[in-house]
Amino acid sequence: MNADQFTKPAKLEFEGNVAENYRRFRQQFEIYMSATGFDATNVPKKKQAAILLNIAGEEAIEVFNTFTFAEDEDKDDPEDILAKFQNYCEPKKNITYERHIFNTRVQQQTQSFDAYLTELRVQAKKCTYGTLQDELIRDRLVVGIRDDKVRSRLLREPELTLQKCIDIAHAAEISQKQMQEIKDETNTVHDVRPTYRTLTDKDRPRYESRGKSQERRKSKSTRMPDCKYCGTQHAFRKEVCPAYGKICSSCGKGNHFARVCQSSRRVHAANIASNPDSSDDDFFIGTIKTQQQTEIVHAVGVDEWISELEINGQAVKVKLDTGAKCNVIPKSIFNQIRSNDTLQKSNTKIVSYGGHKMDVCGHTTLLCEYKEKMYVLRFYVIDSDECPILGLKACQELNLIQRVNEMKLTTTESIMQEYADVFDNKTLGCLPVQHTINLKEDAKPVIHAPRKIPVAIRSKVKEELDRMQHLGVIEPVEEPTDWVSSMVTITKPNKTRICLDPRDLNNSIKREHYPMPTIEEIVSRLPQATVFSTLDATCGYWQIPVDEKSSKLLTFNTPYGRFRFRRLPFGISSASEVFQRTMNQLFGDIEGCEIIVDDILIWGKDEVEHDERLLKVLERARNIGLRLKEEKCKFKVPKLKYIGHTLTADGLKPDPEKIEAVKKMPAPQSKKELRRFLGMVNYLAKFIPDLAQNTSVIRDLLKERNEWTWQPEHQKCFDDLKTACSSQPTLVYYDVNKPVKISCDSSQYGLGAVCLQDEKPVAYASRTLNDTEKRYAQIEKELLAIVYACERFHQYVYGRTVQIESDHKPLESIFQKPLYQSPLRLQRMLLKLQRYDLKVTYKKGTQLHIADTLSRACLNNTDQETEFEDLTVHATIPFSAEKSEQLKAATLADPTLTALRKIILEGWPKEKRAVDPSIKHYWDFSETLSIYDDIIFKGEKVVIPASMINTILNSVHSGHRADAYSGWFEIDHLQDIKATTIIKKIKMHISRYGIPDKLMSDNGPQYDNHHFKKFIAEYGIEHKTSSPRYPQSNGYAERAVQTAKKILSTAKKNNEDPYLALLGHRNTPRDNILGSPAQRLMARRTKTLLPISDTLLKPSVIEPSEVTKRLSHYRQQSKKYYDRTAKPLPKLQKGDVVRVTDIKGKYMKKGTVINETSYPRSYMVNINGRNYRRNRRHLLKVKEEPDSEHEYDTIVEPINQQETIVEQTNWQETIVKPSQVTDHQDDHERQHGLPRSRFGRVIKPPDRLNL
Asked: Is 1202's pLDDT higher than 60?
């Protein structure tokens, strides 16, 4: 396109009103760029910037050279340049000054009310009044309006709203407008607009009482004369004359008004003033003006405001004047047409608006004929040669004009211009309501952990979160909340969307079950509708705020912390019902406005009625703060699609898309395809009359003796059956109060779906699969069919619970799992279904007659396919490109995975025994297997080929510890096991973590040393020891030792840093409630080499009661499994003879039970005259006599003075005080330094040696 054919905008001027100059320049520049095509995406921004500076001019370039651009700004970007110029040209807003301007604004003498109202609205936007804006505009209108009578009328209104104020002022302006300017030429008349003025004393109608008139006449001689330039009274100085500097619209000369113009002596309209003795009525006369910006009463040509009547049988041209309240005829014309009509005397005086008095000869009644109808009209005869005038009353009686009370909206542009604030897409509306989410009594809070997102899109996610926060949709959360949902991020080429996954919350929400209007109810109110409009709310649900309690329920986790919704989010199960109820409350009183969920319909029997209703809806939207989306709105159309039906001036018609799948179904090519089609027909048999007779022709083709030959009679029968399946009563109207069921199916080549109510079809849909979709796994095709059905039947299923029938059973479990646990491609499809409330049920394929037929005889089109490849669910960290290529190659080379890949694509058999033995172990989780980019996934996990297992395991183990235990332990290197060394290490840990209440150890001598006893006493620690020779009684410590050994040995084997390995163990959570040892001990995660958000490193206390409860649960589980193979041993009694086990577990020495100790399952046993404490597990009751002989014990260890007993399987047990039994002999031996073994046992020679 040649740019030279367009006129360049004028350069940017920096003198005068610079802000206004810039606004006009920018608008002209954008129009020029759009017209020339320079704003296209393929035009470099640098070139666009050069064009901008070239057009702006030399002075603008000088200003441009002074600009400083930040790092995120581009001096070659025209948008950034324009923003700089705007900041330079527009003065800084001073709110106080702007409000002063608003509060001092009054209606000017020649200013119309609409202009004054617009001026106030524009100024109010600069004042940031918020929700008080409408009330302050109303108050300013009352105070600043020019007409005192209108002000008095407004003050008398008890509950004055802005809309009511506007209506009263409009009505007053229409009925009382002043005639400020009277034009000399009235030959070209485009429209009628009454213009009124307040009459001066000179030409005022004598409405007052005689007393007032006499009083006025008394003061007449003393009053100031009228100004000949403006017609009013003021000091005789040009500076105070309102006409000084003005241009007369009558003669075009200056310094006077048209009302006193000497050239304006022709009669345009009449004002009749009666004297006190006259019996005539008082009238108020308007005028005919040549203007184009006023009300259009008739779309007529120039001459149609001069109409021709037959008066007394003679044709007379009369001027139609809606401002005149009487009919006027010149005396010359009256003399020509008079027959026997007599002229009656009249005291009425006719005065023009210019103050010129006309001579009234009298009045008469004349017989008039118009369009073969006769009328008797009263005329006043004046001594003038002007054209006869037909007043308002006569014009209405002869049906020459049509009354219009409001401005007529003719174009979409005028609507957008008038209600630009309602269609402003830069702000978010806020309705004057507040919603509360109510939960069921048995609701159990659910907290989801944050999902990880790739580094590449973190900035985009942060920008979207910031945008939502700026709009007031979300806000950060610092305090604890019981409910925390997951965040799901969807990225498109030029857009990032953040979704809430409230599946758990939806299960606990109490639905309102607000009644929805049916299409039948709406259609019953549209018998005469011919003009339609639809409106769509911008981010509809977001315009409904929620209360504080509900907002906390809508908390969700992000890598940047927790946020909560302040507005109603999409995906909440009750959102559509809340939106329907709110819209009904706000718009339900407006006639001609119908609402079903988010579809607002405005209708009228003609354009006038439609426009009046549309204005009310738009004005209401403005008052309540509703924002509408311009691109989704349709205005003043004769035909409109509405919730699956087509509304026309001729009535309701079915939507062609509903039956397209059946109407265009291709003819069957084989007996198998014919059987499938007849299966669908049989399913609808109860709705189709005379089915057997209508199908007899094509049923003959199914007989074995008949060959397949498709003839014209078969085609006719086939077409008739398709028509019967897609028309009433087979195809029913959608009813919002009835349950909805969708039956869908996928074949190898296509998708099919049918929407059902009461088992009757509401709409059909089908399409073919594209080349990419044909390579999908069967489960992906089946889910794709559900997505296609929901999007095709969106107007039927959105905002309500819908049952989905599918013949693929694994889909049931897929819909019950969290989104992030599904395969990647299924995640994308499931995201598309997040806004719907679906209940998927399995149904045998042989029972899905309609969907099965449609999927195999689908329409040959893919124009309505759903694109998923531009969506990515960011809940995992992907492989690197190099690792991904290695996986692909290894997967394709692996024979087992090749067989698995084939069965995933072709579909699994119905029975496990039909599966290849090499892949039979995949059967149990077959529904979670999928293929993406030639890699097999199990949910979100990758299926590793056999050749890469060792490589992947090494990689996995390097960053993660499989041994996840809930305890924190320390590892110290000991030079020796002296008591002083042990005490030093314990004190070091006490300095970090504090003094413990209890300390548990084994029975080593270092813990029985007097230094250790002194340390324990000084620090106030209660010391416990485990049962001798029973490590299981201190199982927690023993398990910690095993774990530590495993960590150290693994690190040494893999040549890793053992301290990093230990850090990884401490950061490994046991589960979502217990968290990791670090979280339980320090209430925070510790930083590792793995990437982690700074937000996750912030302190966060895990509820202690929940931890205790969880630990108790794990102990009970351990006890339950342990008790399956263990039986309680019978209690021993005092005096029972027992055998005590030795170190090898054999029962050797015989002893006698002295008593049961206070420790659980522990007894004091006398062996050879010495007392020992042993666990019941070490004692075997025997039927033997007590041994009275004295023997030295060489097998069983003596009891230490400080031995304690611990519960066998518990980590935190009830503390039992040390035994009161004292072995004096043992103390004596210890004090005298007798030789001991390394276990602390006194070394004694056997008795048999006689030493």
From this structure: no
Three-state secondary structure call for residue 621: helix
Angle between helices 881-893 and 895-906 (to 10 degrees): 90
Same domain, 497 and 538: yes
Q: How many CA atoms lie within 13 A of 153 on its CB side?
A: 16
3-state secondary structure string across 879-913: CCHHHHHHHHHHHHHCHHHHHHHHHHHHCCCCCHH
- Lookup: tokens for 307: 């109409």
Q: Which two three-digit tokens encode residue 578?
A: 């809340």
Same domain, 907 and 1049: no
Instruction: Give 489's strand partners.
Output: 498
Same domain, 686 and 786: no
Residue 559 and residue 1095: Cα distance in Å, rounded?
Answer: 7
Given this model, what pLDDT does residue 245 score?
A: 65
Lowest mean pLDDT among 185-199, 366-380, 400-414, 561-575: 185-199
The stretches of 793-894 forming alpha helices (DSSP H) are 794-797, 810-814, 824-832, 849-856, 881-893
For residue 744, give the CATH number of its domain: 3.30.420.10
pLDDT of residue 483: 92
Contact 157, 135 (CB under 8 A): no
Total domains present in the chain: 10
Closest Cα to residue 267, out of 191, 357, 338?
A: 357
pLDDT at residue number 1144: 61
Q: Is the pLDDT of residue 403 over 50?
A: yes
Q: How many residues does the chain have?
A: 1251
**Contact at 8 Å (CB) between 350 and 357?**
yes
> Could you tell me if 796 and 909 lie in one domain?
no
Q: Is the pLDDT of residue 34 over 50?
A: yes
Specify whether the CB–CB gap between 1056 and 1074 falls below 8 A.
no
Instruction: State the number of CA atoms in the 13 A half-sphere of 1208 facing the CB.
Output: 12
Domain at 158, CATH number: 1.10.1200
- In whole angstroms, how far apart are CA 816 and each of 460, 840, 907? 30, 9, 21
- Quick check: 995 and 1020 in contact, CB under 8 A? yes
CATH number at residue 380: 2.40.70.10
| More reliable by pLDDT, 1179 or 301 | 1179
Average pLDDT, the chain: 74
Residue in the block written with tokens 């996954």? 501
Name the domain boundary from 150, 180, 210. 180
Q: Pick the last residue of a domain from 180, 202, 234.
A: 180
Tell me what pLDDT residue 851 has.
Answer: 65
Q: Print burial letters for 372-391: b (CB count within 10 Å at least 16), e (below 16).
A: eeeeebebbbbebebbbbbb
The β-bridge partners of 376 are 367
Domain span at residue 794? 740-845
Contact 1112, 1088 (CB under 8 A): no
Please tell me the least confidently modeled range out of 432-436, 1035-1039, 1085-1089, 1114-1118.
1035-1039
Q: How far apart are CA 333 and CA 329, in angstroms?
A: 7
CA 1232 to chain CA centroid, nearest Å:
84
Whether 1210 maps to a domain, the answer reads: no
783 HSE (CA, 13 A, CB side): 27
**71 and 37 within one domain:** yes
Q: What is the pLDDT of residue 238?
A: 59
Query: For the chain, first and last CA: distance in Å?
Result: 123
| Higher per-residue pLDDT: 567 or 427 | 567
User: CA 1006 to CA 1024: how far, in whole Å?
Assistant: 14
- pLDDT: is 548 or 338 the higher one? 548
Task: Tell me if 14 is assigned to some domain.
Answer: yes
**Model pTM greater than 0.90?**
no
More confident residue, 658 or 585: 585
Residue 747: exposure state from Cβ atoms within 10 A (0-12, 13-18, ≥19): buried
State what percent of residues in the chain have pLDDT above 70: 73
The answer on pLDDT for 221 being more than 80 is no
Q: Domain with 1153 in it: what CATH number? A: 2.30.30
